Amino acid sequence: MRRVRVLVVGAATALTLGLTITPAQAHGAHKPPRPPTATTVADGLLTALSFAVGADGTAYVSQNFAGVLTKVPKRGAPSNLYSSGGAEVGGVSVTGRNVLFAETGFSGDPQNPGGFTGIKSVDKRGTVKVVADTGAYEIAKNPDGGVVYGARGISAACRAQWPAPDPETGEGPPPSTYTGDVNPHPYATLPGPSGTTFVADAGANSIQRISASGRITTLALMPAQPITITAELAGGLGIPACAVGLKYSFDPVPTDVEWGPDGWLYVTLLPGGPEDASFGARGVLYKVHPRTGRTVKVAGGFTGATNLAVTPKGDIYVSEIYGNQVSVLKRGSRTPKRFAALPWATSVEYARGSLYATSSPELEDLFAGLPPAPESTLVKYRLSKPGHKHRR
């Protein structure tokens, strides 16, 4: 991962703000705007970028940049189940009686990597175990280290005209070409058969598979995300006119992984580079074969695809952080449509006939360098009538 990421950056900034995190309020007095069909499950959360819902209806929500995992029961007060003491916590999923989550303490420097980065589990008693050290795996292997991103096929003459970034600020156009760097950032987890765990790593640009014994392998390197360099784009970025017409391949940023009813893994991708609508709605949805790692594009046209949920019948819901909505891709369709408006929509999950989603409007302040208030909300939409049976 080389270019700036939405949600995948800024954690260190947030963690230096000296924030004190208390358990969320089950039904606070102040809520961000939400669709009228939504029911508030919990509010008063800080950067709630991931969650999972257990079989008993309990929600487990990460307050990512506060480094906290919060338990929200169907009845009773929320409580904090785990605190990292500083590192980002996210990538929540539920398996049996345990909750899986990702922790990212990576400093950004492979030579001095900082704290633990990888997958942990916590049980109902609060006992925490390490599942796998995916940070050490990325540092040792860097599976996409041989992948060339950028303006592939650029001539030497054109490369020589490509401006370098400012040596003091680092600002400037993206590099003409670059290879995958070492940057572990496990962003989503998914329980698999026989004790396996799948991980969408937003920094490693890949889907990883962890065996029951903790052995890590790369299941799939996600495809690079190309955009054609137009004259307008070249002028805006300050890159030479000789690059017009070339395709610039940004590195992919997987943000979630879920099972589909067809037995494939479904993965949302941020497209690298500008992840808002600056270059168009470039977010994509892929499916990945869980054994071979084969990748197939399912749909595009998302504006900041940060999370997905798949229903038993195959409808796919996607949170679009810059689209300020949850969109739906009906089974067999390749065109997403709006399901519900939701400001700063960050994550979605399907459970027992309902769609749950989080909204995190405080990210706007966070990305502006301002201290964020705990404004994230977990809401619930009923997709089927009570009593309707869903295959799980």
Structure overview:
The protein is built from 5 helices and 28 strands. It has 392 residues and is mainly beta. It has a single domain, classed as Neuraminidase, CATH 2.120.10. The longest helix has 8 residues, at 134-141. It is globular, with a radius of gyration of 20 Å. Residues 2-23, 25-30, 32-36 and 386-392 have low confidence and may be disordered. This is ScyD/ScyE family protein. Residues 1-26 form the signal peptide.
Radius of gyration: 20 Å
- Low-pLDDT windows of residues: 2-23, 25-30, 32-36, 386-392
Q: CA-to-CA gap between the ends?
A: 35 Å
Task: Provide mean pLDDT, rounded.
Answer: 90
Would you tell me which CATH topology applies?
Neuraminidase
What overall form do the CA principal axes indicate? globular
InterPro entries: 6-blade_b-propeller_TolB-like (IPR011042), ScyD/ScyE-like (IPR048031), Vgb (IPR051344)
Keywords: Signal
Protein name: ScyD/ScyE family protein
Please provide a brief summary of the model.
Helices cover 8% and strands 42% of the residues. It has 392 residues and is mainly beta. It is globular and about 65 Å long.
Relevant terms:
392 residues; mainly beta; Neuraminidase; 8% helix; disordered C terminus; ScyD/ScyE-like
Question: What secondary-structure arrangement, pairings included, does this model have?
Answer:
Blueprint: H1 11-15, E1 39-45, E2 48-53, E3 59-63, E4 68-72, E5 79-83, E6 88-95, E7 98-106, E8 114-123, E9 128-132, H2 134-141, E10 148-151, H3 156-161, E11 177-179, E12 186-191, E13 197-201, E14 206-210, E15 216-221, E16 225-228, H4 231-237, E17 247-250, E18 253-259, E19 265-270, E20 283-288, E21 295-302, E22 305-310, E23 316-320, E24 325-329, E25 337-341, E26 345-351, E27 354-359, H5 363-367, E28 376-382
Antiparallel strand pairs: 1-28, 2-3, 3-4, 4-5, 6-7, 7-8, 8-9, 10-11, 10-17, 12-13, 13-14, 14-15, 16-17, 18-19, 19-20, 20-21, 22-23, 23-24, 24-25, 26-27, 27-28
Keywords: Signal
Signal peptide: 1-26
InterPro entries: 6-blade_b-propeller_TolB-like (IPR011042), ScyD/ScyE-like (IPR048031), Vgb (IPR051344)
